[in-house]
């Protein structure tokens, strides 16, 4: 238990901002998306929410399990393809339900498989949706993003400052 508390205490909150890098992604967001996440140690990242860069819209995320996707789980939803990344459910509160409708029209619930988030690396996100009464989930859209910048959230939660000049290591 002490290790768990120490790990939580050492979590750093960051934001990675991305620009759209594909036609489906540009159709979803012209200004890009920013992903707020907690970083625990070297490799562990937990995505907390998505913010439309330069806009007011945001959607909360929570880690999800394959069982929530219905028959066949994640692999079936992706058409047999092995997932790469963490599975998160889009919280259907606030702007979350609108985000569900944008990434997966007609879906009652939606999840995102968010690829590995690394500084200066592009990001792939796969949206998965489940229609009301459907026994299984289905792939909705694949999104591609180019890394733009990293932001660090200070303990007092004041507005973030960029860590790097535009897109440069």
Secondary structure layout:
Layout: H1 2-9, E1 12-20, H2 23-28, E2 33-40, E3 44-52, E4 58-63, H3 73-77, E5 86-90, H4 96-103, E6 109-114, E7 123-130, E8 138-152, E9 161-162
Short description:
The protein has 169 residues and is of the alpha+beta class.
Describe this entry's structure for a reader.
The chain is of the alpha+beta class and 169 residues long. It has one domain. It is built from four helices and nine strands; from the N terminus they run αβαβββαβαββββ. The chain has an eight-stranded antiparallel beta barrel with strand order 1-2-3-4-5-6-7-8. Strand 7 and strand 8 form a beta hairpin. The longest helix is centred in the first third of the chain and has 8 residues. The radius of gyration is 16 Å and the shape is globular. The relative contact order is 0.19. The N terminus is likely disordered.
Properties at a glance:
alpha+beta; globular; 169 residues; 4 helices; disordered N terminus
Q: Please tell me the overall pLDDT.
A: 85
C-alpha geometry: globular
Helix fraction by DSSP (H/I, runs of at least 4): 10-25%
Q: Report on the biggest sheet.
A: 8 strands, antiparallel, barrel
With strands numbered from the N-terminus, the spatial order across the biggest sheet is: 1-2-3-4-5-6-7-8
Q: Tell me the series of helices and strands, N- to C-terminal.
A: HEHEEEHEHEEEE
The gyration radius over C-alpha positions equals 16 Å
Poorly predicted ranges: 1-9
Q: What is the number of domains?
A: 1
Structural class: alpha+beta
Portion of residues in beta strands equals 35-45%
> For the terminal residues, how far apart are their CA atoms?
37 Å
Q: What is the number of helices? A: 4
């Amino acid at each position: 238990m002490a290790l768990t508390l120490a790990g939580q205490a050492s979590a750093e909150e960051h934001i990675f901002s991305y620009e759209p890098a594909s036609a489906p992604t540009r159709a979803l967001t012209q200004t890009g998306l920013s992903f707020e996440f907690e970083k625990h140690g070297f490799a562990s990242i937990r995505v907390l929410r998505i913010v439309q860069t330069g806009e007011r819209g945001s959607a909360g995320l929570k880690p999800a399990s394959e069982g929530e996707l219905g028959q066949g789980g994640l692999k079936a939803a992706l058409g047999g393809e092995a997932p790469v990344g963490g599975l998160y459910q889009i919280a259907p509160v606030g702007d979350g339900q609108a985000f569900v409708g944008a990434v997966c029209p007609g879906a009652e619930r939606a999840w995102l498989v968010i690829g590995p988030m690394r500084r200066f690396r592009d990001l792939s996100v796969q949206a998965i949706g489940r229609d009301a009464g459907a026994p299984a989930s289905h792939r909705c859209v694949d999104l591609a993003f180019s890394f733009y910048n990293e932001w660090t959230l200070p303990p007092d939660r004041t507005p973030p400052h960029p860590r790097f000049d535009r897109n440069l290591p």
